[in-house]
Specification:
The chain is mainly alpha-helical and 200 residues long. Helices cover 52% and strands 10% of the residues.
Length: 200
């Protein structure tokens, strides 16, 4: 996950992570406001939730955790309607990751995988996933030694940082033009299978 605004410290990330990932509605709410500003009513409609107060509750939890903030307000009748946006997208450095216990790493991973699943499902449901003939999707098992593992880790890190550079250049170009942004997702994974291969 990348960052927006300040970066959370490991202990704060873990606390926010566990509470955010502990409820499926909360995960979905967070995934939407990470992309756009939305009110509790709009979120409830998108998620098919009848009780708007339920969504408000989860927004308040995310707000208390410092993961979302009120971006703007609007008067609707005699009430004030809040619109929320994400202010924290946890980015954990390699050094910080090493400070986490295995359970804390698992909690962080669960949230990331949940968000990836939501992104893929949403894209497939609206027909966007396979709209482009140059979209990328690969699943490739490898058998490598320890040096090969370290090389693959570096390749994935390099791709992530180069992607951030692409984002920055794109932002700069769009600041000088009227071109609309294309919302895209990049999900990179490299993990051990947890068993010995049958053949070397």
């Amino acid at each position: 996950m990348n960052t927006q605004g300040k970066t959370l410290k490991p202990a704060t990330i873990n606390r926010a992570l566990m509470k955010a990932a502990s409820n499926w509605i909360r995960v979905q709410v967070y995934s939407i406001v990470a992309e756009r500003v939305a009110s509790a009513k709009e979120l409830a409609e998108q998620l098919g939730i009848q009780d708007v107060s339920n969504v408000r509750y989860h927004l308040n939890v995310l707000k208390e955790l410092g993961l979302v903030e009120v971006a703007k307000t609007r008067r609707r009748g005699g009430a004030i309607e809040n619109f929320y946006r994400s202010v924290e997208r946890p980015l954990v450095s390699e050094e910080e990751w090493k400070e986490f216990s295995p359970k804390e790493r698992e909690n962080f991973t669960k949230l990331a995988v949940q968000l990836i699943n939501i992104d893929v499902a949403r894209s497939m449901s609206n027909g966007a996933f396979d709209r482009r003939d140059d979209r990328h999707l690969t699943r490739t098992p490898f058998q490598v030694d320890q040096e090969g593992w370290r090389e693959l880790v570096q390749i994935h890190l390099d791709a992530f940082y180069r992607s951030l550079e692409v984002q920055a250049r794109s932002d700069e170009r769009r600041s000088r033009s009227s071109e609309r942004a294309v919302l895209v997702y990049s999900a990179q994974m490299l993990f051990e299978g947890g068993f010995e291969p049958s053949e070397k």
